[in-house]
């Protein structure tokens, strides 16, 4: 059986999240480089795979699939019987996984990405960081993390006492916040969030992509 | 208020209670219902692993690319007056452009496929109903849809489903 192809970029945390998922599921893959710095993701060849021109996209036999959260969901289902079980064991547990996946996608990611964009991307493109925008998004994220703190004081991981897709989805953005934006205090100032972050970010399947 | 926050600490609606089980985030709720009641009513998840994956993909496109700018338009045109704020025309213009670009991709997709995930109505199409309804019927942005032949046909199809019409009739702010 041909290995799954992951079209992505080694420094794109969403690509790395998909690779981490594949590692957790003990599935072989081939990383096909999409060279973001040279605009490869906007060229016709790549747009034929993903018309939105973003990474990653996977090919598994005849299936071409994009949107990193949809990709990890597909992998979690396809390889349900092997490696880490990302979806819980019951219908209710799976629903809670999706609930916290949505929280990440709708409430955590937008302010976190805005912070990253202002602090890292904007200067990279020659602009200056909008500090007011950063402050506003930090405030939003603080409110979300206060809710996580409460949740994680009662539950080892977000969806329950098992590592799931919901936790995996937080790895990319939080990695940026802590390691590239100097916003690690958002995490370290919250006891349970900090313990959770140290746990999930020290999984070998994640760390291996950064050595 | 505390009673609602006890159900959903993010203070948002909707939340469902099914027996002992409480669940929030509308997309997660829709997925839970689609799974729990698989085998009755409309099959919203496709029939194979591959079809399911494409449903998830287009659900994510809605959540990550369509929803943001669509909501910005609704916020400025519909909500700002209710809250006593003035409309930010520049924000509307930027968001209309963004929605337009996303709908161009949809136009291409829907020229090859009756619905977003394939030739079957799915959660991915369903997820588009609420905001598109407001864009077309309350924000005067129907041209975003009607100017794109296949998007228009798709919208007319999905918005005329009885299950949708039943709830759309009641969509008015008091």
TrEMBL record, chain A:
Molecular functions per Gene Ontology: glutathione binding; glutathione transferase activity
Family designation: Belongs to the GST superfamily. Phi family.
EC number per UniProt: 2.5.1.18
Catalyzed chemical reaction(s): RX + glutathione = an S-substituted glutathione + a halide anion + H(+)
All residue ranges annotated as the GST C-terminal domain in the record: 90-211
Gene Ontology cellular component annotations, sorted alphabetically: cytoplasm
Enzyme class: transferase
GO biological process: glutathione metabolic process; response to toxic substance
The keyword Transport is annotated on this UniProt entry: no
Keyword terms, alphabetized: Transferase
Domain of life: Eukaryota
Name under which the protein is recorded: glutathione transferase
Organism: Picea sitchensis (Sitka spruce)
Keyword Transferase: yes
InterPro entries: Glutathione-S-Trfase_C-like, Glutathione-S-Trfase_C_sf, Glutathione_S-Trfase, Glutathione_S-Trfase_N, GST_C, GST_Phi_C, Thioredoxin-like_sf
PROSITE patterns: GST_CTER, GST_NTER
Lineage per the UniProt record: Eukaryota, Viridiplantae, Streptophyta, Embryophyta, Tracheophyta
Automatic annotation (TrEMBL), chain B:
Domain (GST C-terminal): residue spans on this chain: 48-174
InterPro entries: Glutathione-S-Trfase_C-like, Glutathione-S-Trfase_C_sf, Glutathione_S-Trfase, Glutathione_S-Trfase_N, GST_C, GST_Phi_C, Thioredoxin-like_sf
EC numbers: 2.5.1.18
CDD domains linked: GST_C_Phi
Catalytic EC class: transferase
Catalysed reaction equations from the record: RX + glutathione = an S-substituted glutathione + a halide anion + H(+)
Domain of life where this protein originates: Eukaryota
A GO MF term: glutathione transferase activity
PROSITE patterns documented for this protein: GST_CTER (PS50405), GST_NTER (PS50404)
An example Gene Ontology CC term for this record: cytoplasm
A Pfam family matched in the record: GST_C
Keywords from the UniProt entry: Transferase
Signal peptide: none
Protein family membership: Belongs to the GST superfamily. Phi family.
PANTHER family per record: GLUTATHIONE S-TRANSFERASE F12, GLUTATHIONE S-TRANSFERASE RHO
Protein known as: glutathione transferase
